[in-house]
Design goal:
Layout (H helix, E strand, L loop, with lengths): L6 H26 L5 H85 L6 H34 L3 H29 L1
Helix pairs in contact: 1-2, 2-3, 2-4, 3-4
């Protein structure tokens, strides 16, 4: 038990409890002892001395318990300080993560908007040279938007990596790669329409 950090508190409480029981037993003995013979008077005097000694030991045990409680309170305060520091760190990290996640959400919305634009372009007629020219012009616009969002995803990937949010960095990089792949396909479609 001596190797446990709380053993001083447990030991002090047990010692106090033991001495308190001894004090109570001695008190009950003196209470029941009749003062009617010389022998009983001597016993009573001896019991009173034992009670006085026990009372001194009780005082010492109370002081030891108070000291042990004080040490426990100090340990608790040290741990509470650690917990408080970690709670503040968690709050700060959560705020940073939320801002990065909001940025990722905005990029996702922009990518979805570009995807809708590409689907709209894909449904446009391309039979005449004017229709093809309109489609090619809109494809260039879509490519430019994809490049901007891909650049934003790259910046977010770098920011997330710098803040040690690997999962968000990975998601942002996946978005960037998807946008670049889609932009390349649109570039091929654009070239196909030119010829």
């Amino acid at each position: 038990m001596a190797n446990r950090p709380d053993s001083a508190l447990v030991d002090a409480a047990a010692a106090l409890d033991g001495e308190l029981r001894r004090f109570e037993d001695l008190s009950q003995q003196i209470k029941r002892l009749p003062f009617n013979t010389e022998k009983n008077l001597e016993r009573a005097a001896k019991a009173l001395q034992e009670i006085a000694d026990s009372d001194e030991r009780l005082g010492a045990q109370v002081r030891a318990l108070v000291e042990a409680v004080s040490h426990v309170r100090e340990r608790q305060q040290q741990h509470a300080t650690i917990v408080q520091e970690r709670a503040l760190e968690l709050q700060a990290r959560t705020e940073v993560y939320q801002k990065l996640l909001e940025h990722f959400g905005t990029l996702g919305q922009e990518a979805a908007s570009i995807n809708a634009l590409v689907q709209e372009i894909a449904a446009q007629p391309r039979a005449t040279p004017d229709e093809r020219a309109t489609v090619m012009e809109r494809l260039v616009t879509a490519q430019e938007k994809m490049s901007l969002v891909a650049d934003g995803a790259k910046a977010l990937t770098d920011a997330a990596n710098a803040k040690d949010f690997e999962d968000l960095a990975r998601s942002a990089d996946n978005l960037r790669q998807s946008l670049l792949a889609a932009r390349n396909k649109i570039g091929l479609l654009h070239k196909g329409l030119q010829s």
